């Protein structure tokens, strides 16, 4: 296989935005993805909708996630694939693959990276598992957009797992959809359902510890989306734990669906339409990079000199041990930025990390992990790579003033 300027591992929001930004900046880019389409968790784990990314500054509404995220949003809207901030993931897969094709990005699907080849502090290639066995892909630069900091881990870059005190991660959730529902009737009966759910939980009748039923409307008028199973105290990077998590979550899906059929209205003619292809992982490994973004930074609304993306999504921590979800909501008009240094892993000179696994603590990750923000982090990583490639620079030597100016010129919001 030919050698690329840049190999992006993972085709979620972060990876797609990274690849687009780098290719538009002149780089020859490949996305290596283990599944069969782009979109990452939105597609594989049925994650929906886009969580809030707007605020009001001087009375004016400002989208803190703009740039490539806005382009994707607009293309979805133009295709009638949005309802509020919920979207049709089938359309997302199509929109993203058209966008990367237009930018000339190469794709390799059904390819799972499992080895990093290094020469000193440079990564030279990755090995992927395919139906033909091992395939080696060489590149000058790499972006780890796997969500799990997989390439960083394989390259012996330091990483942490979950929260600092005990390494527990936010719970995993298997999302599911219910079809042929009377959505308005269901929503009208939510107080009744909540009451019954509270009682059943208190009586110890449910295996799912989540404190309430989390449901969203979808662009399809008779389909409900549920993000409500909760598997705690499992390590998302351990295949044995993840297998147990998938099995337990599936039992939780049937448990809550049967429960809702008894205690809510509007599900009389419904059916369990689909569960996600994979259980969703909110949090797993994060790199320990040049700067560790902290919850304290977020709560102080810190604007970094090398800030490359902005966020005000609440610090939304689903209890890693059981029931309860804690929130810290940012006041209107306030936000923090994410420094470029948090994308730089320790120990290598030609890789950046983008997405939900950048260098941060558990509390900060609970905020910036949402799809709009990771898309902007990806755009910044890709734009930085285009600059590094142009002058054959180590990633640490990219001029962050130039990077920020490039992002702004391309429509991103930073500060
Ligand atoms: C249950 C759940 C609910 C959530 N709810 C919301 C919500 O309502 N709104 C919101 O905005 N955000 C939500 N989030 C957060 C958000 O979905 C994720 O944090 C975000 O999608 C992460 O994007 P990413 O690009 O970093 O990683 P991902 O989307 O996970 O993409 C990583 C990609 O890398 C690929 N990959 C991984 N390992 C390998 C490998 N070894 N080789 C090749 N490819 C690999 C994967 O297949 C995947 O396509 C939720 C997350 C979960 C799990």
Characterise the protein shown here.
With 415 residues, the protein is α+β, with helices and mostly antiparallel strands. It has two domains: 4-53 and 63-164 and 283-306 and 337-409, FAD/NAD(P)-binding domain; 172-281, Alpha-Beta Plaits (2-Layer Sandwich), CATH 3.30.70. The protein is 32% helix and 24% strand. The longest helix has 25 residues, at 239-263. The relative contact order is 0.19. The mean pLDDT is 98. Flavin-adenine dinucleotide binds at residues 9-15, 32-35, 40-42, 44-45, 47, 49-51, 112-113, 145-148, 150, 173, 175, 227, 280-282, 355-356, 369-371, 374.
How many discrete domains? Answer: 2
CATH class of the largest domain: Alpha Beta
Which bin fits the share of residues in helices? 25-40%
The tally of helices reads 12
Please state the average pLDDT score. 98
Uncertain runs = none
Global Rg: 21 Å
User: Which ions, cofactors or small ligands are bound in this entry?
Assistant: flavin-adenine dinucleotide
Distance between the termini: 41 Å
CATH architecture title of the largest domain = 3-Layer(bba) Sandwich
Structural class: alpha+beta
How much of the sequence is in beta strands? 15-25%
Determine the CATH topology of the largest domain: FAD/NAD(P)-binding domain
Number of strands: 23
Label the overall shape.
Answer: globular
CATH superfamily of the largest domain: FAD/NAD(P)-binding domain
Major beta sheet, specifics? 7 strands, mixed
Strands, helices and their partners?
Elements: E1 4-9, H1 13-24, E2 29-32, H2 41-44, E3 54-57, E4 60-63, H3 67-78, E5 82-83, E6 86-87, H4 89-102, E7 106-108, E8 112-119, E9 122-130, E10 133-144, H5 150-154, E11 159-161, E12 172-173, E13 176-179, H6 183-188, H7 190-202, E14 215-217, E15 224-226, H8 239-263, E16 271-275, E17 280-281, E18 285-287, H9 295-299, E19 307-311, E20 315-318, E21 325-328, E22 336-339, E23 351-353, H10 362-368, H11 371-391, H12 400-409
Parallel strand pairs: 1-2, 1-10, 2-7, 10-23
Antiparallel strand pairs: 3-4, 5-6, 8-9, 9-10, 11-18, 12-17, 13-15, 13-16, 14-15, 19-22, 20-21
Helix pairs in contact: 1-11, 11-12
Bound molecules: flavin-adenine dinucleotide.
Flavin-adenine dinucleotide binds near residues 15, 40, 41 and 227.
């Amino acid at each position: 296989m030919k050698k690329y300027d840049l190999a992006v591992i993972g085709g979620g929001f972060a990876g797609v935005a990274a690849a687009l930004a780098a290719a538009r900046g002149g780089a020859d880019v490949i996305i290596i993805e283990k599944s069969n389409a782009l979109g990452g968790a939105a597609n594989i784990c049925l994650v929906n909708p886009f969580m809030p990314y707007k605020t009001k500054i001087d009375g004016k509404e400002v989208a803190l996630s703009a740039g490539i995220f806005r382009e994707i949003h607009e293309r979805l809207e133009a295709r009638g694939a949005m309802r509020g901030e919920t979207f049709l993931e089938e359309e997302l897969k199509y929109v993203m693959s058209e966008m990367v094709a237009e930018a000339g990005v190469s794709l390799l699907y059904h390819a799972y990276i499992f080895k990093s080849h290094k020469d000193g502090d440079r990564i030279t290639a990755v090995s992927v598992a395919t139906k033909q066995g091992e395939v080696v892909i060489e590149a000058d630069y790499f972006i780890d957009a796997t969500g799990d900091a997989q390439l960083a881990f394989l390259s012996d870059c330091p990483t942490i797992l979950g929260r600092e005190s005990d390494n527990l991660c936010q719970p995993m959730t298997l999302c599911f959809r219910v079809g042929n529902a009377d959505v308005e009737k269901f929503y009208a009966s939510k107080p009744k359902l909540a009451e019954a759910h509270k009682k059943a939980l208190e009586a110890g009748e449910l295996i799912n510890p989540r404190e309430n039923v989390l449901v969203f409307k979808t662009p399809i008028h008779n389909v409900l989306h549920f993000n409500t199973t909760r598997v705690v105290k499992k390590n998302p990077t351990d295949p044995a734990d993840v297998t147990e998590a998938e099995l337990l979550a599936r039992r939780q899906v049937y448990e809550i669906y049967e429960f809702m059929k008894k205690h809510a209205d509007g599900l009389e003619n419904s059916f369990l339409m689909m569960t996600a292809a994979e259980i969703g992982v909110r949090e797993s490994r994060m790199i320990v990079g040049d700067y560790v973004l902290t919850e304290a930074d977020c709560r102080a609304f810190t604007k970094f000199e090398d800030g490359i993306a902005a966020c005000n999504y609440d610090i939304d921590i689903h209890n890693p041990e059981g029931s309860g979800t804690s929130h810290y909501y940012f006041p209107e008009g306030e936000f923090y930025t994410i420094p470029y240094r948090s994308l730089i892993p320790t120990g290598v000179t030609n890789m950046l990390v983008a997405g939900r696994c950048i260098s941060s603590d558990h509390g900060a990750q609970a905020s910036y992990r949402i799809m709009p923000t990771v898309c902007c982090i990806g755009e910044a990583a890709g734009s930085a790579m285009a600059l590094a490639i142009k002058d054959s620079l180590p990633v640490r030597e990219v001029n962050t003033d130039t990077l920020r100016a490039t992002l702004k010129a391309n429509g991103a919001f930073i500060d």
